[in-house]
C-alpha cells in the first residue's frame, strides 16, 4: 500500500483530513493497526505517533454518533493496549509505562474526558458489547493512569464520578458483574480519593457533590444488587469522605443552616424517592463515626451539642423529620429506617440522660411505637416492637412508663395476622423489662403490671372471640414457659426479704379481685337466666361476655401468680415472716381459690354440663381448672400452711372425676393430676377406682379418637370441648401418668390395670409419627420417651406385664415347624395380622436392654425371632425392610449380650441368612449375624463339631457367587458370607487346629471360588474393560479377590494364582482413573480394593526375587499416591492402615528401598503440592511402623527429610504443605524421639523459625493447627529429648519468643500503614483480622509449664537406669529474661493488643518463668531491657506471681 512506502506517507495518511485518506483506501485505524503489527515497517517514534493519533481521536471525536465514535470502537482500544503493552514490557517496572514523551503527551491529552465519554456513550450498547469495551479499555487505562492522574483536577474527577454512578446504576440492574467496569471505577475512585486528601478546600467539593451527585450516589448504595459488587464499598466510602470530611463537619458545627446536607437529604428522600430511606441508618452511622474521629473540630463550650454524641444526634433529629414527612403509603420503609436509626444510637452509645432534647425525642419514639401497637392489623407492629426493644436497651427508663400498656397489647396482638412475627421481639422485650426490674429490685412493680395486663375488656372482645382465641391468648409471650421460668428464677433470686410478704399479698389481692368480679357477673347471669323479656336479651348477652372475659382473665392471672407464689424466696426470710407468708397463702387457698374449684366441680356433679356446654359451664370450669392448678403447684412447693384433711375437697373432686365426660377436658386433667398426687387414702379400693376411671378415660380416647396424628403443644387451653380436645386431654393425662405416677400404678394397681396400661403403650404405632416430636407431644412421642426411661424398667410389676404381653403376642410362633417352613410356605397358615403383631412386639423388645429381658424368656424370644425372620422371608405381604431390621437387630443385640451364638436353630438359621435375599437397609445387620454364627461354628469345629461349618462351606461351594461381569451387587449375600468365612478362619484360627476333613473342605472352597473368579480378573488384566464407569463398579470384586489370595496363602494351596495380575490391572485402569480429577466415592472404594490386591500379592513373590519384590513395592506405593489424592478421608485412612501392616512385615533391605523410593519422589519436581503432602504422610507412616533394629536406617532418612525441608523452598512456602511438614516433625519427636540426632535438632529449629517468621502475605483464614503443632514439637523435645534441647537453649527461647509474638493482634481502627506494620510481623498462616485466641494461649502456657518439669531422657542401652530425672529450669534461667521481654513487648506494643482472656490463660506458664528468675536477673531485666511501660507491666506480673507463689508455710 502507498502509506507503507515511507514513514512520511504513513504520517500523512494518519493526519489526512478525511477518513479513509483516499477513496478506496482502508480506514485510518486499519492503517495504524497494520503498521504497528508489521515489525518490518520502520517508522521513527512509531509508538508515539500512533498513541498521539489514537488519543487525539478518542478525545476529539468521543462525542460523535454511535457508529463513528472511536471510544466505542474495539479496534482503537485493542491498538492502544498493544502499543502500551509493548512499551510496558520495555520498562523497568512491569505493568507501568515509563517514557518521558508519554508523560508530555498525557499532559496535553487528559484521560478523564475520554473515560467520561466512554462511560456515557456506552449506556445504550448491548450488555455483551459493553462488557467487551469495558474490559479492553480498562487494560489500556491501567497502564498509563498513574502517569496522567497527577494532572486530574478535582472538578473533572467529580464529574467523572457522576458518570460512573449513572453507569453503575444501569449495570446493577444487569445479570452479572463486569470486571472491566470495576477496574475503571476503581481507577476513578482511587484518584478522586487521593486528590481529595491533598485538597485544601474540601468544603467546595463536598457542596458540589451534594448538589449534583448525591441522588445518584444514594440510589447506588441503596441498591441491594449493587451491594454485591466489588466496587460498592469504594463508592460508598468515597461518598462518606466527600460528605463528612473535616471541612464539612466544621461547617456543620457553625450552625444548623451552615451546611445544606440535611436540606438536600430531605428534598431528595421525601419528595421523590422514599426507597432511599434505607440509606439513612448507614448515613447516620457514617456521620457518627466521622464525628467521633474528628471530635476536636467541635467548638468548645457547655452547650448540649458540643460533645460528639449530642452533635451526632443532630443527624437523628433530621432523619426523624424526614420520616415524619413521608406519607402512609411508605409506612413500612419508614419503620424499617427508624429501627435502623435507633440501632445506630444504641451501637454508638449516643444517648445521654442529661441531654433533655434527646430524652424528649426518644420518648416520642416510644409513643409512636405504642400508637402503632394499637393498630392490630398494621403489618409494622413487629418492627415497632423491635424499636421498643432497642429503646429499652438504650435506656429502659424511656419505656418504663409505657410498659403496662405494651404488655396489655401483647395479648391482643397475638390474635392478629402478624402474631407469629412478634414472638422473638416480644420475648426480647419481656426479658429486657424483667432484667431492668431485677437490677433495680423493683420486681413487685413488674409483677403487678403483668397481672394487670391479663385483663380483657368488653369494648375489644366478644364472648365468641374470646372462646375462639383462648388458645392464642394463653400462647402469648408473657405466658410461655420460657418467660414464666425466667420470672420464677428472678423472683427466687431478686425478691428481697422485705418484699416477700408484700408480694404474696399483692398477687393474691389482685387474683381475689378478679375472682370476685367473675363471681358477681356469674351471680347476675344466674339470676337473669330464666324467663326474661326479649328486650333484655342484650343485657344478658353482655353478661355472658363479661363472664367469659372474667374467666380468661382469672386463668391468665393465675398462671403468673403460680410462677410468682411458688418461687418466693422464703428461705431468705425469718421464721416469723415465713409463717405469715404461708398463712396468707393458706387463707387464700381455703377461701376464694377453694370456692373457684368447687364452683366447677358442682357443675360437673349436677350434670349441668350436658345441657349447655357453651354457656356458663365453660367459664366456670376454666376458672376451676386454673384455681386447681394454682392449688396443686402451691401444695407441691410447700409455700402454704393448712391441713388438707380438714377439707372435704377430695370427695367433691372424686365425684367430679367419676363424671369426667361432663367436664371441660382441661378441668378433668387437672382433677386427675390433683387426685393422683394426693393418694394418702385409707381406703385402698378408692385408689383402684380412681385408676379405673383414669385408665378407662385413656382407653376410650386413645383408642377411639385416633390421637396418633394429633400433637399437644403443652398448653392446657388446647384441652377444650371441640373435636380434638378429648384426644389431646388423653395425651396430656397419659404423659402425666407415665412421668409422675408410674410408682402408683406399679404398687397399687391390679394386674388387670397394669396390663391395660401396657396395652395402651402397645397401641402406639412406632413406625410413624415420631418425626412430629419436635412440633409437639404425641402418643408416639410419649411412648418413645417412656420406653427410653430407666424409671419404667425399674417398676418390676409393670416390667413383668410388659414382657408377658410381648410373650403372648409371639406365642403363635412356637407352633411353626422350622424344618417345614424351609420347604413350603409355612406362613400360609399364619395370618398377616399375626405376623405384623409379632414384628410390633419385637420392635417394643428393642427398647429394653437385653439384660432386662427375663432369663427364662430369652431363649423363647430368640427362637421365635428366628422363626419370624424366616416367615418374613416367605410372606411378601407382611415383610418390609423394617420388619427384617427389627427381627435381626433383636437377634444381634441379644446374642451379642449373651456372648454365645449357639442356639437351637443356629445352623439352619445361618443357612437361611446366607441364601436369602437381603434388603439394602439390613445388609450390615445381616452380615453381623452371619459373622457371629460363623465364628461360633468355627469354635465348635475346633472342638470337633463340624456339621455347621461343613454346611456353610457347602453352601458357598454349591451356590454361584454372582455374576462377576454384572455391575450390580448380587441379590443373595453369599459373596459377603464367603468373604467373612475366609476372614474369620484366617484371623482367629490356625489351620492346624482344624480336623483334616475341614481343611479339605476349605481347600475345595478355595478352588471353587478361584475357578469362578480367576477368569474375570484375567479379563481385567488384559484390558478388556476400559470404561471408567464400568471399572468403578468392580471394587467389591477386587476386594474379594484380595481375600481369596490371602486365603490361598493361609491354606498354603498349590493352586494359588501367580503374582502380577494386580500390577497389570493397575496399568490397565490407572490412566482411565487419573483422567478424572474430582473425588468420587466409587474411586475411593476402587482404590482401596486395588491397594489390597497389590498388598496381598506381595507374599506370592519369592524372597529370592528381590528385584520383582522391590518393583512390586514401588507399585504399591505408587498406587497409594494415586488413590490418596482421589480418595475420601475415611478410605485414605484405610490405605494408610494397610501400608502400616505391610511395613511391619518387610525385610530391612525392602524397608530401606521403600524409604529411598519415597525420598526420591519427594525430591523430584514433577509432583504437585497435594501429592507431596501425601508423600510426607507416607514417610511418617513408614517411620512409625519401622521394624526392630532399623534405628540406623531410620536416622539416616530422618536426616534426609529434615535437610530437604530446610533446603527446598517449595516445601516451606506452599500453604498446603505447611501442616504436613509440621505433623511429620511432631510425630517424629513424640513417637520416634530416639531417631533424632544432635545434628537434626538444628534443622528442626530452622523449620520452626521459618514457619514463625513475619510475612507480607497472609492466608485468608488463621490456621490454628500450625500453632498447636509447633507447640507439640517443642513439648515433645522438652519432655523426651532434653539432652538435645539443653545444648540449643537459645534456639528454644527464640522460638518461644516468636510464639508469644504470634499471639498479638492489631488494635481496632488502625490505619492502613499501621495495620500493615503489625501484619508484616505476623506469620503467613495468621490472618491479622482473625488473630490467635485463648486456646492457643493455653497450649503455649502448658509448654512453658513443662519447662520446669523433671524428665528422663530415653536412652537405649545398659546406661538407661543411671540417668536421673532433671528439668531445664537451671540451664534455661539465663534465657528467661529474653522470653519475658518478648512477652512484655507484645503486651505494650502500641499497635497491638493481647486480649484479657489470652493473658489469663498464659499466666501459669509466665509464673513458671518467673520462678526460674533470681533477683539479680530480674533487676537487670528491669533496669537495662525495659522501658517505662515494660517496667510497669513487669511489676504487675511479678505482683501476681508473688500472690500465688508457695512460701513454705502451711
Secondary-structure blueprint:
Elements: H1 7-14, H2 28-37, H3 46-60, H4 74-90, H5 100-108, H6 112-121, H7 127-148, H8 154-172, H9 179-197, H10 202-212, H11 214-222, H12 232-243, H13 246-254, H14 261-271, H15 280-293, H16 308-325, H17 331-347, H18 356-374, H19 381-394, H20 397-400, H21 403-413, H22 423-440, H23 443-452, H24 463-468, H25 470-474, H26 481-494, H27 497-528, H28 537-565, H29 575-606, H30 613-637, H31 649-658, H32 665-677, H33 684-704, H34 725-740, H35 742-748, H36 751-762, H37 779-787, H38 790-793, H39 796-809, H40 818-821, H41 832-845, H42 855-874, H43 881-898, H44 906-915, H45 923-942, H46 947-958, H47 974-988, H48 996-1021, H49 1028-1031, H50 1035-1051, H51 1061-1074, H52 1081-1097, H53 1106-1126, H54 1129-1143, H55 1148-1163, H56 1169-1184, H57 1191-1207, H58 1209-1213, H59 1215-1231, H60 1238-1252, H61 1264-1280, H62 1282-1285, H63 1289-1302, E1 1305-1306, H64 1312-1320, H65 1334-1346, H66 1369-1372, H67 1376-1388, E2 1392-1393, H68 1396-1412, H69 1415-1425, H70 1428-1444
Antiparallel strand pairs: 1-2
Organism: Russula earlei
Protein name: Urb2/Npa2 family-domain-containing protein
